[in-house]
Amino acid sequence: MTRSQFEHVVRAAGAVLATDEVLVIGSQAIHGAFDGPLPPEAERSVEVDIAVFDDPDGLKADLLDGSIGELSMFHETFGYYAQGVVEKTAVLPAGWRDRLIRFETPGTSGVTAWCLEPHDLWISKAVANRPKDVEFCNAVLEAGIVDAVELADRLDLVDETALDTPIRDLVLERIRAATG
Question: Where are the beta strands (DSSP E) in the chain?
């Protein structure tokens, strides 16, 4: 997804939800931190995972899915879409809210996207451990977008009850491999 496509989804999400702030927790949050060329694996996704602050029952996420989500008219027209999610969808390091990156451009028409900071995003994607997430993590690590030492520190900030030991060990091994 290009940056202008990302802006379009943010703008559309704000309009659908009648809000001027959204939270982006998926891979496309990388656009919040970088205005320039990204590895192809970082732009491959056609969806923006968007949550709304204070949506404990997920009703706003459902509204987003129904309006501009997968298989919607929006998706069919533009080839990309918003995936409505809730905050707890992602496993994140403690303090992630304090590190959110504000993304607002003329292309978002007054809607602010609060994007995960790249190291927090990397941890979340590494923990999810789907093939597309592993590909994303490898690409942004190899491109120097994230730092392995900082990733290890962030992994230490993930609540142990939210992450089982085999996954934690796997993520740590990926981080160590990058420094080796």
Answer: 21-24, 47-51, 81-84, 101-103, 112-115
Indicate the DSSP class of residue 171. Answer: H
Q: What value does the mean pLDDT take over residues 32-60? A: 94
Q: For residues 160 and 93, give the distance between their C-alpha atoms in angstroms, rounded to a whole number.
A: 10
Q: Helix crossing, 118-128 with 148-156: angle to 10°?
A: 70
* pLDDT tens-digit map of 110-139: 999 999 999 999 999 999 999 999 999 999
Judge whether 115 and 104 are in contact, CB under 8 Å. Answer: no
Query: In this structure, what are the phi and psi dihedrals at residue 47, rounded to the nearest 5 degrees?
Result: -130, 150
Rounded to the nearest 5°, which phi and psi values hold at 48? -115, 120
What is the Cα 168 distance to its own chain's centre?
19
